[in-house]
Specification:
Layout: E1 5-6, H1 7-13, H2 19-32, E2 35-40, E3 46-51, H3 53-71, H4 73-86
Antiparallel strand pairs: 1-3, 2-3
């Protein structure tokens, strides 16, 4: 959110994500218009990702969703447990 970032920097901050999943997610976000990908013709090639205006507009609602999920984490886990016991 604080400007352009490189793939490895993003990967180090997203706990537990595989390289393949991050690559696919970034492609999807770029396709949908949330992220711009810039390739710099250097040796080695440098690639940066940055949120678009639309992507930045999504940050606040996403933080609200994450906050809501944190507040309700116990209820969510309880519901999962009940569901799994039925299945």
């Amino acid at each position: 959110m604080d400007g352009p970032d490189r793939f490895n920097s993003l990967k180090s901050r997203v706990v537990g994500i595989s390289q393949r999943m991050l690559t696919q997610t970034l492609r999807d976000l770029e396709r949908e218009g949330y992220v711009n990908r810039t390739v710099f013709p250097e040796v080695p090639v440098r690639v940066e990702y940055e949120l678009t205006d639309m992507g930045r507009g999504l940050v606040k609602p996403l933080y609200q969703l994450v906050s809501w999920a944190e507040v309700h984490q116990e209820e969510i886990e309880s519901s999962r447990l009940k569901y799994d016991q039925r299945s």
